[in-house]
Fold this protein.
Amino acid sequence: MKSTAEETVFFASGPLRLEGRLYRASGPDAVVVTHPHPLYGGEMDNPVVTTLAGVYQRLGYSTLRFNFRGAGRSEGDYGDGIGEQDDVRAAAAYLSGLGKTVTDLAGYSFGAWVNLRLNPPLATVRRQVLVAPPVLFLDFAPAAAAPAELAAIVGDRDRMAPLATLQALLPDWHPAARLYVVTGADHFFGAALDRLAAQIQAALAERS
């Protein structure tokens, strides 16, 4: 679901040069989309990441998916989740410089963890979308201040984000967090990308 209208861009995160894919919509709203763990092959062209970006694009958002430091053609080394928070802020600042307002953060797996723990949070963000937050792999507590809306999307066969564990944690992340389930999908979604896209669209259509 990669958009042919995306362009390759580079932007600064401190002294580092990061690689991204930018889609410019006519409206002011934008989303930063983050990828899975870079030490396990995660990068911005992951099919779930491009699916997230594609749904937002169809809804009229500008999108920026990018490689965290040390991934792809982005400079630097893995930053233990802290440096990656700086990368998210840098991506948002780049969009702001283009006249766009980052209203959403959308992350898959490790990217969801980085976004949720962003501290201090981005003042303009009103919604976070967490796809397959790996609650058995990374420590999600304590989360930073929650945005106005939070939606989590997970496969019912995801061993890194079991439904029961996720349901128990969601109220700690946001008192009105919404959960969407992709039936028959594991952590990687595989052949369930179309069903994932439908749940992402449902999450973005529903308001708290």
